[in-house]
Each structure stands twice: as C-alpha cells, then as structure tokens.
Amino acid sequence: MRARTLRLAALGAAVLVATSGGARAQTGAPRKLTLSQTVDLALKVSHQMHLLEAAEGAAEARVRAAKAQRFPVLNTEGNVFVWDKRLTFNVSGMPLPPGTDTTIRDRVSSAITVNIVQPLSPLLVIGHLIGLERRGVFAARADLDRAKLDAAERAATLWLQALQAQAGLVIAEKSLAQIEAQLENARVLERGGALGTVDVLRLEAARETARGAVLRVRTNSEVLRRSLAVLLYLPTLTNLELVDDLPDPPPPPPLDEVGAVERAAKQRPEIRGAGERLQQAEEARKIAQAGYLPNVLAIASYTHNEGVGTIQPSNAAFVGLTMNCEIWNWGKTGAQVDEAAQRKRQAAIAVHAAALEVEVDARRRALDAAAAYEGLAVAAAGLRAAEEAYRIQSVRFEQGAATTTDLLEGETEVARTRTGALVTRIEYFMSLVSLSRAAGELPEFIR
Asked: Beta strands 108-119 and 73-82: pairing type?
C-alpha cells in the first residue's frame, strides 16, 4: 500500500512538471512512438487507472477492517472527579472503634476500567461482512481491468488517427509534387507550341488546390499529434513522430463472431464486476437478516478505584455475558431486509444486462473487423488500377495525346484511391483494436 501511494505521488509530480512545461516546450528532435509504446505509456500515466488502484487499495483495507471484528476488543476508560466536599458516614449513637476510617468518598476520586469484549453472535454476521468486502475488492479489480482496456483502446485509436493524418500528409505532398512536375512539363510544351495557355492555367489552379489540401492535412495532423501528447501527459509541443511498424500485410482478424462472443463472456471485466456486485448484494441481504438475532457479547472487566473509601473496593473484576435484542422497532429490520433483497434483484438484472450488452458488442465488432479485412483487398486493387491509369495518362500527356483535363482526372483519382487505401488500412487496424477490447484483452497484433 505504501509503495502504491509513493507511485501515485511520483505520477502526480511528473504530470505537474509535464503540463506546466507544455506551453514552453519547443519542438526539437522528434520523439518516436510506435503503437505498442503508446499503449504502454498510456497505461502508466492514466489518471483513471490510478484512481481505481486507490479504490482497490481502499477495498482491501475494508477487508482487513472486517476481519479485525472477529477478535476481542480491548478498551479502557478513566475518570477523575473533584467533589464539593468529602463524604463520610456517622452512625448516630454508635461509637466507632478508634482509627476507624469513616470516609465514603474523598473530595477527589478517580477510576480506571479495562474491558475485553468478545463478540459471539456477531461472528455469524462478520463472516458475511468479510465476504461482502472481499467481493468489493474483486469488483474494484474488475473496474481497474476495464479502465486498463479503455485506456489502451483510447490511446491506440488516437495513435492510429494521428498516423492516418501523418500518412495522409505524405500522400497530399506527393500529389502536389506530381502536379508541380506536370506543370513544369506543361510549361515546356507551351513554349514549344505543343500546348495551350489554358492547359497551363488548369495545372496552376490544380497546384494551388493541392497546396490548400496539404495545408489542411498538415493542420489536422498537428492537432492529432498534440492531442496524443496531451493524452500521454507529454508537453503539448512535443515533436512526435509516429513509427508505422504495423504488420504488412495486415493479419486476418484473430476472432470470428462466435469466438469473439465466447472470449468476451470469459474475459470482459464488465461481466466479472457485475457478478461480484451480485454476490455483494447477497452478502448484504444476509447481514440485514441478522438484525433479527440477539446481540450476545462476552465481557471481562477490571476496575481500579482511588478516593472511594472503604465501602467500595479499590480493585474489582468480573466476567460475564451480555445480550441485547430489539423486540419491536416498528418494522425497521424488515424494511432493511426488503431493501437488501431489492438491491440484490437490481444486481441480478445488471448481470443479465451486462452479458447481453457484451454479446452484442462482441458480435458487432467481430463483423466490423471481418468486413474491414475484406475491404483491404478491394482498396489495394483499386489503387493498383488508378496508379496504372495515371501512369498511362502521364505518358500520353507527354506525347501530346492527352489533355490536361485527362491528366488531372487521373491524378485526382490516384490521390483519392491512395487516400482511400490508407483510410481502409487504418480503419482495419482500428477495428482490430475494437475487437480486442470487445474480447476483454489488449490488442495482440501490436506486440
């Protein structure tokens, strides 16, 4: 527990330094990040995960507190009183032997009592209390596992979006370079009289459009990289370079629809957490029913008195049993039992709802991944066709057999299919991340 506290304190200090320095940070040597490195870093710095780690520690402490109630309790009580006068006794007409102490109570009296109390009947309830708190620990661990999966999915998705923008910038710059090259060639043809001015103007307009596209994609890429830096608690202006080490060609989905549902039913922390809370509700119901039982305690007590005279002994001790039982409390205990039963019913409904939600989620994400995988081949074939068509149009344009309109249409199509292939590839990996989350595990393809 102490180690966890120190780790949380260190995390807070690191985050404070990172965020305070973010506005002053300058772009320097790029910090390279693969997808796996991004996920690992996100799991280390996630505030939600550390909050849930603290919640788990609190639940463990409650278990220890519940277990301690099984053992005897040692307590002490003391007092000192200053009275208005000394109290004595005097039997009228009866002489007392010389030296007889007639003090009943001195002006100053004190007492100290030490008690040992051992619960007897509560032992039946304490067992259920321990079970309730232990289930709370298991539920907290399930919440922590859920937060881990959520943090990994969020970081991986943002990294993939930023990678898509980064690669899209490369495509946009490549398209701009192609148009500029064609523009230079067109100017040469214009000077030779083989091409009209209007054709050159069309290419110049296309170049400016491509420049605008590059600017938009570059801005979007920068926004996504900064968002990723914020998510990872890095200085906002950190120069991130995303390293595309994703499998090429991409692997097929690791799970089909049936496999995804079976894996999710076994591994999803949402189902596990709901089940633990159902068990908690059952233990709480049994604890509420114990309100009908008497409370029996074993007690051993020792008292030492000062200033109490001869009537009361200076030292006294006893052992015994006490019992307390509420005979009538206007239905309070019954109402508490009914409340606990309804809360158990709520928890049972939550278990059923979680199972249905997880099944639907797993099926949907498995189908999405399968469809995205099939789309990879379609996008690759379309890209090959568009690139070949553009190559042919470029050759025909150089030979004067194609117009600038033909050339620009070919360039536009190849740029569109390149972007489409990139989007299809990134969306497929996003679907794999979602599928892994649906199955209750971290993405395996990044390891």
From this structure: antiparallel
